[in-house]
Amino acid sequence: MKTAFKDFIADEDGAVTVDWVVITAGIVAFSFAIMLFIQNTMPVALADLLTRATDVVMP
Fold first, then answer.
1. Which among 10, 24, 28, 59 has the fewest CB atoms less than 10 Å away?
2. Distance from CA of residue 1 to its chain's centroid?
3. Close Cβ partners of 49 (under 8 Å, ≥ 6 residues apart)
4. CA torsion angle for 38, 42, 43, 49 (degrees, to 10)?
5. What does the radius of gyration of the chain's CA atoms come to, in whole angstroms?
6. What string of DSSP letters covers 25-52?
7. Model confidence at 9, in pLDDT bands (50, 70, 90)?
8. Alpha-carbon span 18 to 8, nearest angstrom
9. Whole-model pTM?
């Protein structure tokens, strides 16, 4: 039983899968954070752009 447990702990076949799951979860979390930031700042930026665009005087 001890040798089976040692073999299971020493086996690294699934380690790459775990790495990819962690990397993918990090990318998803980072993308979600960026989306929230853009969602909160975009209305202010668009309002500023609209104000600047309407203030332009064409010659």
1. 59
2. 42
3. none
4. 170
5. 26
6. HHHHHHHHHHHHHHHHHHHHHHHHHHHH
7. confident
8. 15
9. 0.55
Burial 27-42 (b: 16+ CB within 10 A, else e): eeeeeeeeeeeeeeee
SS3 readout for 12-24 = CCCHHHHHHHHHH
* Separation in Å, CA 55 to CA 46, 48, 49, 50, 52: 14, 11, 10, 9, 5
The enclosing H or E element of 59 equals: none
Q: Please state the domain extents for the chain.
A: 22-54
How far apart (Å, rounded) are the C-alpha atoms in residues 18 and 24? 10
